[in-house]
Amino acid sequence: MVNQALPARPANNRGAPPSLLLRYGSQMGIIGVGFAMWLAFVIAAPRVFTDFDIYRAFAETTPLFGIVALSLTFVVITGEIDLSFPSVMALGTGAFCLVTYYGGAPWWVGLIVGLGTGAACGLLNGILVATLNIPSLVITIGTQFLFRGLELVLMNGTGVPLLADKYPQMHALLREPAFGLPVQTLWMVGILIVEWVLLNRTQFGAHVFLVGDNQISARLMGVNAGRVKIKAFVLVGVTAVFCGMLSSIYGYYFWPSTGDGSLLNTIASVFLGGTSVFGGTGSVVGTFVASFIIGAINAGIVSAGVNAFYTQLAFGLVIVVSVVLQTIIDRRIRRQSVTGQ
Amino acid sequence: MTIEASLAEPAKSDAGGPPVIELRHVSKTFGEVRALSGVDFLVNRGEIVGLLGDNGSGKSTLVKVVMGFHQPDPGGEIYFHGEHIDNWSVARARGLGIETVYQERALCEKQPIWRNMFMGREPHTRWGLLDVKQMRAESSRLMSEHMGFTSAAVHPNNVVATMSGGEKQGVAITRALYFEAELVILDEPTMGLSLSETRKTLDFVGNIKKAGKSAIFIDHNIFNVYPVVDRLYVLDRGKVAGVYLRSEITIDELIDRLYRVARTGSMG
Q1: CB atoms within 10 A of CB A5
Q2: If you ran DSSP here, which 8-state letter would residue B53 be given?
Q3: From A6, A221, A340, residue closest to B120, measured CB to CB
Q4: How far is residue B171's CA from residue B164's CA, in Å, rounded to a whole number?
């Protein structure tokens, strides 16, 4: 329904597909930042960073928060946030310990109970956010305390040893290297592929983008925005428990404080990965790359001989700079709409 | 405020049969605000129905009830082809062939055209996965065939935020067309459009009728509405203040009555 004179207008930048810079600018930026940081580390501590061991350490520890960051990307794209996942990691893994260590149930029952607990936590978060319209920033602070409190009460504040002779299958699945590669990273790559398909090749994924972009428009066109958000929160809940189990098995012990300290790493990975704080755009591949950058900052700064206090400063810089950059890119797109160019 | 008691009988369309959509005694309350009260409204097969009324008269609310976005207050009933329908929802309405071009366009501006074109009704392959290839190809085809873009002018990967107002409206209208709707609702489709874009939009309404489909046409401008419709509803403060067959009222009489209803709340 546009006037027919339009094609005769002088060609402008819309004649071509949007430039790669506009489409993948933030992702290319992250990879650039990651590469520059790696170079800096190699120069600062050549002996550490030319040794394979440091990379194996990254590959074993980054997925412990990186996997939940992949799922958190979905929630952030819908325009929400989940701050309760560190407690869900502990509550779900605690439930696993309860039924297997104290209850004597087989490991796979514990696995199902644990992941189910995560799904239930995500469902609660999602329902509170989607049906009652409570800002997720506020309500997930509340549920963070709720889930942590529940876990501490259930476990009586105690930990549980998770040694390989009692949990051989769990260790085989979540700790022993597979094909000579760190199994944690293999899991993360597998989950990345599944979640990439989920986000980019399913109706649910399409609706995640639409709801985060403009919830009213999406609802006017028949998208059940509430259900989309609830599903995204459930995804975070389930993968949070998976990460809780992964890190507990990695440390041979379930600590009642499991998940503490993973909040900032995870959120930083999502934002550094190019997912917009305003919702509507984002990428799980970006989050994947960014998690390894975040994981490397920690280890890298220490091995480069810099005081460990600087890690906090580096995290802060990473979050602030990535959010500011995204905002500038977002404004640029909007200004183009005003001038029609 | 007295409302004219005997409203004009709805036009019997040639196609016959029950109306495509019928609302009976529909009210809609938002908190303290009564946006619609006791509205009876129907659209026959092959009929173009105009909806006139001042700002706040309830036109957009009525459209959103028809579309399933708002649920009517208890007591209101919705019939589709004569069948009483419970649990009316947008997905249901679209599934039955009702499409709307909304006043606010209902686009997701940070998304590419192809995502907007198939919003809420994404095609998928037999594996259940999104058919992105088809979505891109169809968007490209629709843009050149219906929107008058040469294929080089706009790429389906372009983000909607970079388009002009008329182009955005083109996406919204093309989207409504694509699904071969039985009933198309156009809520202020000419708002913000240039003269030639407006004329194309009005031609589009005419084509709906030629294709034997039905439409509800809402516009501030009575001179846009009158020539293309078969029947007119006038809404005032949430109530139906009058129903006219176009063949029974001249545009001057209509304008006269609209002035009167604005002053007195009655068509007199």
Answers
A1: 10
A2: E
A3: A221
A4: 11
Contact indicator for B9, B247 with CB cutoff of 8 Å: no
The ipTM value here is 0.86
Number of Cβ pairs < 8 A linking chain A and chain B: 155
Nearest to B111 by CA among B101, B125, B122: B122
CA A198 and chain centroid, separation: 14
- How far does A272 lie from chain B, in Å, by closest CA? 19
Q: What is the pLDDT of residue B5?
A: 37
For residue A135, pLDDT over 90 is answered with: yes
In chain B, what's the furthest Cα-to-Cα distance? 61
A 10 A CB-CB count for A112 gives: 14
pLDDT per position as a tens digit, B45-80: 999 999 998 888 899 999 999 999 999 999 999 999
Chain B residues whose beta carbon lies within 8 Å of the beta carbon of residue A221? 90, 94, 106, 119-121
Using CB atoms, which residue from A16, A205, A336 is nearest to B161? Answer: A336
Chain B contacts of A206, Cβ < 8 Å? Answer: 115, 122, 130
- Find the closest chain A residue to B202 by CA distance: A1
Nearest CA in chain B to A217: B106
- The average pLDDT across B242-260 equals 90
CATH superfamily of B1-97+181-268: P-loop containing nucleotide triphosphate hydrolases (3.40.50.300)
pLDDT number for residue A21:
62
Q: Where are the domains of chain B?
A: 1-97+181-268, 106-174
Render A77-130 in DSSP notation, one character per residue: HTT-----HHHHHHHHHHHHHIIIIIT---HHHHHHHHHHHHHHHHHHHHHHHH
